[in-house]
Amino acid sequence: MPIFSNCPSSSSVLLCKSWGTSICSHRKLRASRKPSVQGSLRGTLPGVQSLKDRESSELRMTDSIEKIKRQLKDVCTRTSPYDTAWVAMVPDPSSHQNPCFHQCIDWILQSQHENGSWGNFSLCSSFIKDTLTSTLACVLALKRWSYGEDHIKKGVHYIVSNIGSVFDEQLTSPIGFNIIFPGMLQLATEVGLILPLGETAIGEIISLQNLELQRNSTNKSRGRKEYMAYIAEGLGSSQDLNEIMEFQRANGSVLNSPSTTAFVVTQYHDDRAFDYLSSLLLQVGSSVPATYPMEIHSHLCMVDALQNIGIARYFLDEIKRILDRAYRSWLERDEQIISDMATCGMAFRLLRMNGYDISSDLLTKFVDANSFHDSMQGYLGDMRPVIEIYKASQTRLFPNEEVLNKINSWSSILLKEETSMGPNSQEVKFALQFPFFADLDRLEHKRSIERFNFGKIQMLKVSHMSCSVNEEILKLAVGDFNNCQSIYQEELKGLNSWVKQCKLDQLQFARQKLTYCYLSAAATIYSPDLSDARISYSKNGVLTTVVDDFFDVGGSIEELENLIALFEKWDGKCEKEFYSEHVQIIYMAIHGNINELATKAFAIQNRDITDHLVEIWLNLLRSMMVESRWQRNKAIPTVEEYLTNGTVSFALGPVVLPALYFVGPEISEEVITHEEYHRLFRLASMCGRLLNDLRGFEREGKEGKLNSVSIRIANSGSSLSIKEAENDVNKSLENIRTELLQLVLKEGTAVPKPCKELFWKTSKILHLFYMNTDGFSSPKEMMSAVNAVIHDSLSILG
């Protein structure tokens, strides 16, 4: 029998081992250490950026980070000229001939634009209806109290000059525009404001209101009632006060709208509504926002945005402070959270996914689709609350969370109906296509950056926009992504060299999956400081693929036994007897990688992990031999026997477990022997095994390979159909995934959080790869993801 003895030349061993050590100088990273701008940029490989460019980038990123941190401390309330005008119209309780809030009048006088208008987007033609609404409201406020005659003239001139836009249906319309604007024209007559529009034009505008009211007059839903209360100022005294006050909040406002609340105070003198306005002015000064309060929602949106675009690691303290407050508000059942489906759903998802112990009981009010249909958003067809509650429904941690199951059922149906229509169809499409458990972090970051709309204009009764700090968020995200992408490209080049130096590309039986392996690493272990973890994850992914193919098709039984024997006799030396050149190439590549990882890990862990790495590989090889013998002997194990062995043979051990040593914290011997550590590994591996079996059932059946689907059918005596067997596997998969997430999010356990998160991220990789087919085996299925994360530049929407 052929025996290959002696070690390859020392130079080739060094070549096979050396890449990575020179680039990834043993960084000592601790879990408690937050990423710095310097750390992120200095992770850039030599030659990618000059020292001067790097220092300039650091300064720009530091400046953006500080601006964003300030915004995370205090909510920026964007002024609404329209709402400020309505508050300015509130009379003094002791003298109805005088305004109560003089500071609002002063703000209006100081804030008119040169063209005579008021509004946040007065120079943008597509928002001219918004500007007309704000301008007419401000003119009415000044006229009511006989202030600013010149301001009134200029405002009237602007309105008259642009009145034709009222009828242009192609322009963006604020909520309730066709009721509110005609209503204010009628109010103009009452306060003696002369608008030289002509009776015909005024009549046509008034008719818009009549048509709007008639259009849905038969709709008696609570959603329509809420909508009519929200735009009550457009209907004047004709609306029943009780129907408006049905929507008064605990804080005294009507639907958190300063303009509606001001109208109620002006018309009906409600004390609680007046107290709300007084408190609001004490908080914000001389001008008011379009909705208040909004602090919790705004802060949660910022946290969500920072996480979605991949820069949350720069703001860990600020995010914790925000989530701690949101958690307290959740426990207190704060009206800011529980009264709004979108805020409630977002709060639940962010709190649960960030490790807060939170029950889904508070979502019981949303178990039925009527919770949406009977809301104003449902009446208006605004799908944003449905998107948020759908995302929340996916974060199931316990088998009996029926509330989440019911929410998921109806919300997914509505969203699927929305994919072919509606302004939110793109966002809906992404929510359905990429569930949170089947997405890669860096893919999500890139999508979110490219369609970044946090802070873009939201239409309420007037346009609403968050603060300009969002430009800083986008700037930081783009710089961070581009910097990381340059690092990924250099790392992948180095890995390609390593594959060739180790002669792995010469193994004709082996699939060449380096790009997929590196995608898995870069898209989840994405921080520049974690290069060692990425390299470990990628190299071992390549090696396990080679070994898998060797056991499946490339090796004889003698070669397989020889490879296992080499690891059983591991002594750290490379002078061995090899049955074939294939065995020699595979063993030497793994041997060199183990030694390299052990050397790097020693600098971080302060102990030698070589024995653990060898044990991981030996367990994998032995499990693969079991499957090989099953196949050769045509034996059919029980499902339990198959899965017990399959959790190891799926080959996550060498990929994930060594990488844990490089994600930050020190990992003691006690941790790697702890039941939680092994349970995390079993659950993640089981997800992979079941996903692989579901997507590879037909192919593996033709190859004569065992599979949990086919074994179920065989063990049932063929009484179980393929569909029933697949349903059983899917049900098991869902329960295992839920158990894994529950364990990962549990605080204060033996395994450090960054390590637990890598198990979950690996599960996400597997779910994405096997979402529609066996993406890992397909030569093209995942190439778009490879290009998106590693090669293709960002394409920012204007």
Mean pLDDT: 89
The total of beta strands comes to 6
What's the number of helices? Answer: 37
In angstroms, what is the radius of gyration?
A: 32 Å
Oligomer: single chain
Low-confidence stretches: 1-15, 17-33, 42-48
In which order are the strands of the major sheet placed?
1-6
Query: Which structural category do the helix and sheet elements fall into?
Result: mainly alpha
Strand content: under 5%
The largest pleated sheet is described as: 2 strands, antiparallel
Helix content, binned percent = 55-70%
GO molecular function, one term: terpene synthase activity
GO biological process, one term: diterpenoid biosynthetic process
Pfam family, one: Terpene_synth_C
Protein name: Ent-kaurene synthase
Report what the structure shows.
The protein has 798 residues and is mainly α. Helices cover 62% and strands 2% of the residues. The protein is built from 37 helices and six strands. It has a two-stranded antiparallel ribbon. The chain has a two-stranded antiparallel sheet with strand order 2-3. It has a two-stranded antiparallel sheet with strand order 4-5. A hairpin with a 3-residue loop joins strand 4 (458-459) and strand 5 (463-464). Helix 3 (51-73) crosses helix 24. The chain starts with a strand and ends in a 7-residue tail after the last helix. Mean pLDDT is 89; it is low at 1-15, 17-33 and 42-48. One of its GO terms (molecular function) is magnesium ion binding. Residues 242-431 form the Terpene synthase N-terminal domain.
